[in-house]
Amino acid sequence: MDAPDVILMDVHPPWREGEDVEEPAAEAAAPALAPDRQQLKLCGTTFEVPLHFEPIRALGKGTYGVVAAFRNKETEQNVAVKKIPNPFRNTVDGKRCLREIRLLRLLDHECIIKLLDLVAPSSPVFNEVHLVTELMDGDLHTVICSDETLTEDHVQFFIYNIFRALLYLHSANVVHRDLKPANVLVNKDCDTKLCDFGLARGRAGFSEEDDDFLRTEYVGTRWYRAPEVVLTSMEYTATVDMWSAGCILGELMGRAPMFRGKDFLDQIRSICAVLGSPKDSELSFIPPENEAARNFIRTRFPAMPREDWTAMFPNSTEDQRDLLDKLLQFDPNARMSAHDALRHSYLEDLHSPEDEPVASSHVDWSFDDVPHDPDRLQCLIYQETAFYHPEILERDREALAARGWPSETSR
Predict the structure, then answer these.
(1) What is the DSSP letter of 124?
(2) What is the CA radius of gyration of the chain?
(3) Which of 260, 267, 237 has the alpha carbon at shortest distance from 166?
(4) What is the pLDDT of residues 319-350, one digit of tens each?
(5) Nearest 5 degrees, angle CA 38-CA 40-CA 41?
(6) Is position 375 annotated as part of the catalytic site?
(7) Phi/psi of residue 198, each to 5°?
(8) β-bridge pairing 192-194 and 138-139
(9) Angstrom distance (rounded) from CA 388 to CA 369
């Protein structure tokens, strides 16, 4: 099936008015501007970009960065530039920045946003990072909240491409962990690409440092968290992304978020209010050391009835409801995988194995598995930039030697 008709959008995500945004911290003094760079102020923030970049418009700001659209006059291509100010102010922000850059450089799939360039810093001493990516027209949050008609063809096409991206990610040993409509970018021709990989981890990986963030971050993110993320500190698997995909499917069907908890505990109540109180067998995934989480559900939500999908989504099809049911399973072990979801009868007209590639190898997560001090993180992000601009290694050879940094890149 071909892509559905155009959906008009004019807002680039995932930064919008009304979210819990955080103004960028004050910028420290920076080295002298390189002769091939210019400084342009958009969205209240100064971007340092190549001279051949022409500003188009500010796109917004969020908890992690500021984004603007530019025209690359050399390639005649419109791009998005994401500025991350002061990424080394703490280890969590620095690792998140490094994680996003490394993954976007390594991942290669048409349903994942492409990192086109990293703006080279003027010297090895830098306090901001500029990522250059493809520019998309909007995101699924924009689409869902718009007045545009969403046909079943639209819903099928969007969810199919989300599953394509997740199949590839999970085969590469990557779990996105922050999948939500705002992180699913779309174009007017319904091209679909996942973005924002700062919280991603390996399928069997877990990071204590961002557990609180995953469970308690602002409301627009919490609504898409799987029950096991909210309830426990277990090692999350690829099934957390499948839960989030189910939330997105339901939101596309009903044009409203499915689970709107006021805090992370109320999030469990909102899930039980729709899916009903889980049976003991559905809580078997909770490890013994988290028995308090199991008891919390048993005592607080002992007998909540399950909502009827047909009543919730009166215009839905049987296949649509069946897929939704297989994704929104309280027990992560019972959820459908991306591989199986692509073969579900709901996507029969779109399913094509040649359009659903898996990764050729696993991502090596060793870069993320050890503590990094600010200097080490700065070095690693400088090395990432050198993949795009190897000439800076020769330019900075003496400064690199003085800091004890390598003067070559290693993959």
Answers:
(1) S
(2) 22
(3) 237
(4) 999 999 999 999 999 999 999 999 999 999 99
(5) 155
(6) no
(7) -65, -20
(8) unpaired
(9) 24
